[in-house]
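Retro notes, item 3 of 5
We never archived the inputs for the adenosine-5'-diphosphate complex last cycle. Fixing that now. Sequence and ligand:
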Amino acid sequence: MGMIGFYAGSFDPFTNGHLSIVKKTANCFDKVIIGIGKNSEKKNRFDKNKMKKAIEETLREEKIDNAEVIIYDNLTSREAKKRGAEILIRGLRNGTDYQYEETIAEINDEYSGLDTCYFRAGNLGYLSSSMVMEIYSAGEDVSKFVPRAVAELLENSKKG
Ligand code: ADP
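Structure as it came back at the time:
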């Protein structure tokens, strides 16, 4: 079956930063599961099913064929284990991310024995969903920061 990595996030919206992590990890693991979860500290802005479809479209456009997208409600480590993942994936932008991620990683390890593997954001480290939302809410174009299908979803969400 090979090594499965579980990349959890709010992906609200999914950005080019998230995509870069998916690309890197798809090269490292046999399979990557992108899990759209809920973060109790954040409110959900976009419809998860629509975001899932936009991410799937992006994977097709990028010719990434060993990644899949799921929506879950469970505790991340439980969901990851249930789906046969052996490692949790997170992206790191800076020291603040590191400190935040370490707490979560430690708890996940306690609960499930699953370790977390961090991937570097590199030159997209400035990008965050909240920064995209800031620009989007001001009515500006965000297509530089998100994959094409996500930009389309954001554009359509304005109308509805
Ligand atoms: P969460 O609410 O779980 O933090 P996010 O969707 O904000 O979910 O982020 C999911 C993961 O992707 C986190 O590990 C985050 O640090 C990482 N991430 C966010 N933006 C970037 C980026 N620009 N480059 C690399 N990793 C990123």
